[in-house]
Amino acid sequence: MLMQGRFHHYEGYTLGKTAMPVRVMKLCGIEAVIVTNAAGALNPRFGVGDIMMIKDHINIPGMSGSHPLKGPNDKRFGSRFFALNDCYARKWRQLGETVGKELKMEGRLHQGVYTMLGGPNYETVAELKMLQVCGVDAVGMSTIPEVLTAVHCEMSVFAFSLITNKCVFDEEEEGPNHEEVIEAANDNKESLSSFVTRMVEGISADLPNNDTTDIPNGGDENKLE
User: Fold this and answer.
1) First CA to last CA across the chain, in angstroms?
2) Count of H helices and E strands in the chain?
3) What is the pLDDT of residues 134-172, one digit of tens each?
4) Of 15, 81, 168, 197, which is the most buried if we count CB atoms within 10 A?
5) Which DSSP letter does residue 217 get?
6) Contact call for residues 149 and 19 (beta carbons, < 8 A)
7) Which SS3 state, helix, strand or coil, does residue 187 take?
8) Do the Cβ atoms of 61 and 144 come closer than 8 Å?
């Protein structure tokens, strides 16, 4: 199943609504999800066009009581309380490292910590400095609600950020804008397509319930282009 875009909290949707498609996926039998986003780099080693595989996150909205699973728990999807120590599956990040080497992405592929702020404004200098002290490598406005819901549903998660801008720590420097984010995404769409395609193939081959016998043409004509 492939989503074109996502629902954002800043568009007026509740966090539960932003993650609703993940529950639809669960009901359709999806076992693993790949979550992507555009993010600003706090880590000075990251450049525009780099990929950061998310190894952990800091849930800023969650610290203030905002959570996609807030309210009554639906036991059809998962238990009330659940662990997050491997929410970004280590085995998929290891696969990502292998795929990155095969695609000659050395120097452009990283692992790091992601955080989500509410948006739609970009962060203040003080906020960025605070996040950097907290060990955050990249910041965006999405992803965490979907990841939390997927883990609650016992789905395996691989997530990565495309670094579309470097965070600005100088009050006198020109800040980020949406146009440069879109431009960076478009400039890297071919390499991202190759990376995601290989990850889909690798994850699919590793899933315990993987079976292509019922797929027309044996599955070969259904691969991502």
Assistant:
1) 15
2) 8, 5
3) 999 999 999 999 999 999 999 999 999 999 999 999 887
4) 15
5) G
6) yes
7) helix
8) yes
The average confidence (pLDDT) of the chain is: 91
Q: How far apart are CA 96 and CA 108, in angstroms?
A: 12
Count, residues in the chain: 225
Per-residue pLDDT at 218 exceeds 70: no
Residues 18 and 174: their CA atoms lie apart, in Å, by 31
Neighbours of 207 (CB within 10 A): 11
- pLDDT tens digits, 122-142: 999 999 999 999 999 999 999
Listed in sequence order, the residues at least 6 apart from 125 whose beta carbon sits closer than 8 Å to its beta carbon are: 168, 169, 170, 171
Question: Which domains, ranges and CATH numbers included, belong to the chain?
Answer: 9-168+175-206 (3.40.50.1580)
Tokens 């610290």 correspond to 63
Rounded CA gap, 1 and 200, in Å?
A: 11
Helix (H) or strand (E) holding 37: strand 32-41
CA distances from 46 to 22, 127, 160 (A): 29, 19, 13
Task: Indicate the pTM of the whole model.
Answer: 0.89
The predicted structure's pLDDT at residue 211? 57
Helix (H) or strand (E) holding 132: helix 125-133
Helix or strand holding residue 101 (H, E): helix 90-102
| CB atoms inside a 10 Å sphere around CB 67 | 18
Instruction: Give the SS3 label for residue 157.
Output: strand
Token look-up 């990155």 returns 100
Distance set, CA 75 to CA 15, 62, 72, 152 (Å): 19, 21, 9, 10
